[in-house]
Specification:
By secondary structure, the protein is mainly α. Helices cover about 50% and strands about 5% of the residues. The protein binds protoporphyrin IX containing FE.
């Protein structure tokens, strides 16, 4: 039922967001033609000056040299047009490759296959940690200064990679590295977000429309520590962090539904355990469990976290619990607990916004792409 609804939602999205195809042929033709023209002009200029200048003074050896030079130039020109790589043009010729939807779908497929193949990790999938990488790139955005966000992939560098909140995300970056080697034309920043999109869809979540256009930036664009949420804090902190990115209460609650996926690791955040019984499948169980289960402080030698009273196998962070304690947050948690389709729709929209924060796209909003999942007919 939920799957059918999500499929029809994805179909609707696909119709609403027609596939965008770039027109590369014209610009690439112009790019390659330009040096030819320059060469032709130079050659013409040289020839013209010869014409009006030196007179023939009866020196046949000079004539022979001249003819030889002409042959050499003509031969060189022929070679230049036939073998541009001999003239250092290969790199430029490759530079005009303009990836299209089909090329990004290939990257998506390669990530999906790798997620499927490497099922020994954690609860059987790298999906959750790959999604967390995409969120932590994007979640540094500050709307006042228009800094941070997924453009740049600055988490490749210390200090950002060493920020406490990013502990453990090396696993996701390393997971995506062979994909970058296979498709060197994609920027790390576009790849990491595509990884997040792929992880959500492959874990049976909603479709997340996508636009490329992020460019990798250097270490000077690393954001200061403290921009990501602290799980030990309260509603004021949640609103301050997500408000800085430009989100409202409804979007904050929808985004946190990602905790249906994955788990906490004592050697990363210090917290321990999964939020749901199916941590590699996207569902609205996070809200259902938050509202329906009895939760108590876990008695242990770690940071303060909640434990479900019945099975003692699930956990909630203090920030998770705020979503049912705060009246405004709670109305959305209740809505999503009752209606998986409403959750998927709002989650998709909020994640799309999150992944695009601060990115100077050239491709317009109605030119987003929707990737085919590995299980789509
Ligand atoms: C108040 C907001 C949030 C807080 C305080 C928070 C905190 C945390 C913490 C402490 C972990 C455990 C990390 C570890 O030990 O490996 C975690 C994991 C995770 N978070 Fe969040 N998070 C928040 C919002 C979000 C959002 C908005 C998303 C995505 C849209 C998200 C996606 C995830 C995922 C998928 C994992 C599992 C990672 C894994 O299994 O390795 N979180 N989060």
């Amino acid at each position: 039922m939920a799957a059918t609804a999500s499929r029809s939602f994805s179909r609707a999205l696909r119709t609403a967001a027609p596939t965008f195809r770039t027109t590369s042929t014209r610009s690439s033709a112009r790019f390659v033609a330009a040096p030819h023209q320059a060469f032709r002009q130079q050659w013409r200029r040289g020839y013209a000056s010869q014409e009006g200048g030196d007179k023939y003074e009866g020196n046949p050896r000079g004539m022979l040299w001249g003819a030889g030079a002409l042959v050499a130039i003509a031969g060189g020109y022929g070679l230049y047009t036939q073998k541009p790589e001999w003239f250092g043009q290969e790199v430029k010729a490759k530079g005009v490759f303009q990836p299209r939807f089909e090329d990004y779908q290939k990257v998506y497929d390669a990530i999906a296959k790798k997620l499927e193949d490497e099922d020994e990790y954690d609860d059987g999938s790298y999906g959750p940690v790959v999604l967390r990488l995409a969120w932590h790139c994007s979640g540094t955005y500050d709307k006042e200064t228009n800094t941070g966000g997924s453009n740049g992939a600055t988490m490749r560098f210390a200090p950002e990679s060493d920020h406490g909140a990013n502990a453990g995300l090396k696993a996701a970056r390393d997971f995506l590295e062979p994909i970058k080697e296979q498709f060197p034309w994609i920027s790390y920043s576009d790849l990491w977000i595509l990884g997040g999109v792929c992880a959500i869809q492959e874990m049976q979540g909603p479709k997340i429309p996508y636009r490329p256009g992020r460019q990798d930036r250097d270490v000077s664009f690393c954001t200061p520590d403290g921009r990501l949420p602290d799980a030990s804090k309260d509603r004021k902190h949640i609103r301050a962090i997500f408000g800085r990115m430009g989100f409202n209460d409804q979007q904050m609650v929808a985004l946190c539904g990602a905790h249906a996926l994955g788990r906490c690791h004592t050697d990363r955040s210090g917290y321990d355990g999964p939020w749901t019984f199916s941590p590699t499948t996207m569902t609205n169980d996070y809200y259902k469990l938050l509202l329906e289960e009895k939760w108590a402080w876990r008695k242990w030698n770690g940071p303060k976290q909640f434990q479900d009273v019945k099975t003692k196998s699930l956990m909630m962070l203090p920030t998770d619990m705020e979503l049912v304690k705060d009246k405004s947050f709670r109305q959305y948690a209740e809505k999503y607990a009752k209606d998986n389709d409403a959750f998927f729709k709002d989650f998709s929209e909020a994640v799309l916004t999150l992944f695009e924060l601060g990115v100077p796209f050239t491709q317009s909003e109605d030119q987003r792409w929707v990737f085919k999942s590995s299980f789509d007919e």
